[in-house]
Amino acid sequence: MAKARTPRQKMPHQPPDVRRGNFDEVALGYDDETAVLEASRCLNCKNKPCVAGCPVEIDIPGFISRICERDVAGAIGIIKEANCLPAICGRVCPQEAQCEVVCVLGKKSEPVAIGRLERYAADWESEHGAAARIEQAPPTGRRAAVVGSGPGGLTVAAELARRGHAVTVFEAFHKPGGVLVYGIPEFRLPKSIVEREVEFVKSLGVEVRTNVVVGRTLTIDDLFEQGYDAVFVGVGAGLPSFLNIPGENSLYVYSANEYLTRANLMKAYLHPVYDTPLRRGKKVVVVGGGNVAMDSARTAVRLGAEEVRLVYRRSRVEMPARAEEVENAEEEGIIFELLTNPVRVIPDEQQRVKAVECIRMELGEPDDSGRRRPVPIPGSEFQIETDTFVVAIGNRANPLLTKTTPGMDTNQWGYIITDPETGQTTREGVYAGGDIVTGAATVILAMGAGLRCARAMHEYMTAKPVKH
Q1: Is residue 136 included in any domain, yes or no?
Q2: Max CA-CA distance within the chain?
Q3: How many domains does the chain fold into?
Q4: How far apart are CA 399 and CA 102, in angstroms?
Q5: How far does CA 111 lie from the centroid of its chain?
């Protein structure tokens, strides 16, 4: 148990006063010695609960032991046997709620920093040009189409390519990556890293076609007519939800989707090199308590806001955002208006937002989510002055693809109905996973769904005769 006495190694960060003024990555990563010291804390448990806690089933003790031995090339090789996006997962996955929460060391001490070690191995691979060798099966003659190049789609594509299938990924935007490029800010996930991971998937023989909106440019039926044997749908849940309060259609009221897409994918953060239209407000209000709300508020700070307030209707305890992101936001000077809910947007004479009227809340009995239900306090209304208002309260399923796919059933909220084990939809040969099935969730859960779907698609395609 001597290893347990070594404290968990802290991740170096940019200081808050510095990072407020740039879009560079906040967390700076472990150096070699820190990574080895952190890896030495692993107890290499016999039953490996961390592996069971990982949605993509990485051999976590295996790769950590390689880091201990300073065989980082071996470590990244083990990781990539299960995960084609390790540099991304090491940065944005909620390890504290998955692999790390079941770490045996965490019962008496702090858990091993599994995510940070995964990031270290992935970054080492890039810095040393030591690409992990991935074994691929010979060509099977089968073709698979993947709709959406987010984390679920990329996982399916990589897994099927490794099994010998020809894979084409169709992406609606002009760059692949899905939420990884349009939703997550540069300071949390640099776009160069997403590009690097996509290039790895392409190196397996995967073709990526951008600017193709399946459901409009072509349909699922068209894909089968073009000779694809199976189709995976991983289009996410990109239709933003709004508050439906008076004045919400005022100018400079954004959905978080639009705000972050303009800032990230359309590169407003690189102004004036890119002249993307985006309000660079001085007093910004963001409503929501998840990671997207934190990303929006922290983006506003970096775009030059003098005051950013985050309005959330419950207390900090109920916030769904990662604790690390909440702490980062607080360090960067974002003001939290907790137990507060907007009830009206107030525009000026030009219909531009000038204030948000809110009401104080108190917590009542738990609701369906298990969190205590927020209840308005009568007569507690007050106003917050603002020139930019960002609504970050979640997304819904976009019906564009599902409405053009006969035989593929959806539930009452528009999400695709699937077999939970295989991802098979009610339409033969069509599989689905990620947010378009579950509603908004995490990158790694979408990847876990992609892994299950890829296995099922492989069995489905190989059971059929080759038609090409």
Answers
A1: no
A2: 70
A3: 3
A4: 38
A5: 23
- Sort strands 353-366 and 372-376 into parallel, antiparallel or unpaired: antiparallel
Q: What pLDDT, on a 0 to 100 scale, did the predictor assign at position 277?
A: 82
In a domain, 375, yes or no: yes
pLDDT at res. 40: 95
Contacts of 77 (CB under 8 A, 6+ apart): 132, 133
- The SS3 of residue 175 is coil
Same domain membership, residue 208 and residue 85: no
CA 370 to chain centre: 23
Grouping H, G, I as helix, E, B as strand and the rest as coil, residue 280 is coil
pLDDT tens, position by position, 195-245: 999 999 999 999 999 999 999 999 999 999 999 999 999 999 888 999 999
Q: Rounded to whole angstroms, how far apart are CA atoms 78 and 68? A: 14
Q: DSSP of 181-227, one letter per residue? A: HHTS-TTTS-HHHHHHHHHHHHHTT-EEE-S--BTTTB-HHHHHHTT
Neighbouring C-alpha atoms within 13 Å toward the C-beta of 105: 27
Q: Is residue 18 part of a domain?
A: yes
Question: Do 391 and 406 belong to one domain?
Answer: no
Could you check whether the bond before residue 378 is cis, i.e. omega within 30 degrees of 0?
A: no
* Length of the chain (residues): 468
Nearest-angstrom CA–CA distance, 209 and 186: 24
Whether 95 and 232 map to the same domain: the answer is no
Range of the domain at 418: 143-238+397-462
Place of tokens 């990031």: 119
Confidence of residue 468 (pLDDT cuts 50, 70, 90): low
d(CA 434, CA 440): 8
Neighbours of 211 (CB within 10 A): 11
Task: State the residue for tokens 């991935």.
Answer: 134
Cite the beta strand spans of 259-404 per DSSP E: 283-287, 307-311, 335-337, 340-347, 353-366, 372-376, 382-385, 388-391, 395-396
Q: Any idea what the CATH number is for the domain that residue 328 is in?
A: 3.50.50.60
Is residue 138 domain-resident?
no
